[in-house]
Each structure stands twice: as C-alpha cells, then as structure tokens.
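Dear colleagues,

As part of the handover before I leave the project, I'm documenting each prediction I ran so the next person doesn't have to rerun anything. This entry is a single chain, and its sequence is reproduced below.
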Amino acid sequence: MSELSDAQALLAAYKAAELAVLTGQSYRIGSRELTRANLAEIREGKREAQADVDRLTGARKMRRVIPRDI
C-alpha cells in the first residue's frame, strides 16, 4: 500500500472510532460512568490523519483574497 492509502485508511478508522464513541461507547454502573475510548484522543488523531492526507494529496486550504486598487 502507498503512504496515501495508508493515511486514508487511518483517517477512515479514526472517523469510525469517533462515531462509535459518539453513539454509545460509554455506560453507567451506579453513580460511575465508564467510557471505553477517549474521544479527545480520537479527535486529535483524526486531525493529524487529515493533515497527513491533505499533505499527501496537495490539498490546500482556501484563503479569501480581497482585491484592491493600488
């Protein structure tokens, strides 16, 4: 597999993990609530994976330009 396909697969895995946590990966026993995964860590990994995919595909963020007469 290429580096790009690896990065895309990792990004897809982070997206799936984030969705799994958001749809009920935590449970309550008495007054204690337990979570099987850390959403903050998943989201940080997702941001890093997205940055890798963007870097490998050459995607750039759009910036607004205001033309001016000089």
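The mean pLDDT is 84. The longest strand covers residues 26-29.

All the best with the project,
I.
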